[in-house]
Amino acid sequence: MRITRLETFLAPPRWLFVRVETDEGLVGWGEPVVEGRAEPVRAAVEVLAEYLVGQDPLRIEDHWQVMTKGGFYRGGPVLSSAVAGLDQALWDIKGKAYGRPVHQLLGGPVRDRVRAYAWVGGDEPGAIRDAVAGQTEAGFTAVKMNGSGRMTPLATRAEVRACLARVETAREVLGEGRDFALDFHGRVSPANARRLLPLLAEYAPMFVEEPVLPEHAHALPDLVNASNIPLALGERLFSRGEFLAPLQAGVAVVQPDISHAGGISELRRIAALAEVYGAQLAPHCPLGPVALAASLQVAFTTPNFLIQEQSTGIHYNEDAELLDYVADPEPFRFHAGHLLRTERPGLGVDIDEAAVRAADRAGHAWRNPVWRHPDGTFAEW
Ligand SMILES: [Mg+2]
C-alpha cells in the first residue's frame, strides 16, 4: 500500500483536517492544527506531504521519526502539530487496513468507557451557577472552568475574592460527589498562584491547570508545595522531553494535546513517562471529531488515564461544532458523562467528507482575543 495524496481542509470554528489517501482506496483522517495558527500548520503539512506521498502508510514510527527529526530543526507548535495530525491519519489507515480499532493495535483496552468533563466558561463569574447546573443535569460528573478573567500580576483582594467566589459556587452546585477543575490559563503570575492555591484547597478542585505559564516552569516545585491541590499542565508542551522537568517538579496530571504533541504515537510515550512519576493523563482537546476520536483511542488503552477534555458547548466555538463534521454521531454520544468504547476500525470516527469540503470553501481565520490591562499593556488571555 502506498500513500497517493494528501489534502487539507480549513474548517470553522478554528480547525484543520487532513485527509490521507492510499492506492488501495483506504483513507485516513487527522487534525493537524494549533488554534489561531492553522495556516502555518497547513503549510507545514504540505511540506511533509512531499516526503509522505509514495510511502507505505503502515510504517508509522519510521515516518514519525523522519517527519519530526528529518528536517534537522525540530519541535515547536507548528511542526509538532503537523506531525500530530498526520500521525492520527496514519493510525486511522492502519486500523482500517487490519479492520480493528487503534486501541486494539496499541495493546487492547484497559477500560470500556472514558470519563469526560464539560466546559462551563468562567470568564463571567455570574454565569457559573447556571452553567454548572446545566452540565450536571446533562449527566457530566466533572466540569472545568477558568479561574479568572484578566488578572493583574499582583492580584487585588477583589480579584482573589472573585476567583474564590466562582469556586465556592461551583462546589455548592456540584456537591461532594462530582468534580471541578480550575484552569489558570497562564493568566496567573507565580506570585498570584502562590497566594491562590492555599486559599482554593478547601474547595478540593480535581486539579488546577496551567498554574503558571510554561516559561515559568522553574516556579513549579514551589507551587506543588504551596497546597495539596494536584497541578496539571501540558497543552503548550510538544514532546515527551518537555514533560520531564514538570514531572520531576511533582506535577500530578499531564495534559498533552493529541493534535499538538506528536499525535497518538507521542501521547502514548508521554503517558508512559507520566506513569513512571505516578502522574495521570488528561488530554487537552478543545478541537474537532478526529482529535477527540484519536484521544479516546489512547484513553481506552492507557492505564494512567484520568479524564478527557472535549469541545461540546465550549464557550469560544461559535460558528460550528464537533458533530457538524461526522456522518454518525453515535461514538460522541455521552452516557452519564462518559464516552463508550466501540470496535469500529481505525480511529472509529465516520467523517462527513462533504461537510468538511463545504466548510473549507468558507474557511476561517480564527484568532484568540488579545487582552490588555487597564494601563494598555498586554494581558494574558
Ligand atoms: Mg487549558
TrEMBL record:
GO terms for molecular function: galactonate dehydratase activity. Keywords: Lyase. GO terms for biological process: amino acid catabolic process. Pfam families: MR_MLE_C, MR_MLE_N. Residues 125-230 form the Mandelate racemase/muconate lactonizing enzyme C-terminal domain. Its EC number is 4.2.1.6. This is Galactonate dehydratase.
